[in-house]
Amino acid sequence: MIAAMQQLIAMTVREVLQESDADEMTEHQLRMEVSRRLGVDLSLPKHKAIVSQAMQSFLEEEERAREDDGEASEDEVPEYTDSGDLIVCNLSRNRKVTVGNFKGKTLVSMREYYNKDGKEHPSRKGISLTNNQWSLLRNKVPAIEAAIKKMTPGS
After folding, report:
1. How far is 130 from 107, CA to CA, in rounded Å?
2. Is the overall model pTM greater than 0.85, yes or no?
3. Which are the contacts of 55, defined by CB distance < 8 A and separation ≥ 6?
């Protein structure tokens, strides 16, 4: 794919995200909307990677802008879920990384949440890792980053 097409896809991703609620839009929904606007099939892995990278870049820029505007960063003020788990990171409005205890075990959870009766509840969509599983994943982060770089066009 030529660089001009990559730039066009990335620009369109940004336009769509600016016009919508970026926290609510899934990557698949974004790719479908960009595909519709450009009249191009973006289902190939190289196209998916361009959309994913542009979305990630947009979200990171938005987070930096919020921090620059004086909004408290997640590292400054600890937040907790309604069930008492520490929120380590808000991946989006409904997706969180938390650390908590369940049946006497400390778990790192990446999960989607939903609101019911004014309270936030964890959904079944997600994963919880024990300390050992978290350590294994953490040790594989360099390999994951290398694989992402290898799969990302233009890297």
Report:
1. 5
2. no
3. 13, 17, 22, 27, 30
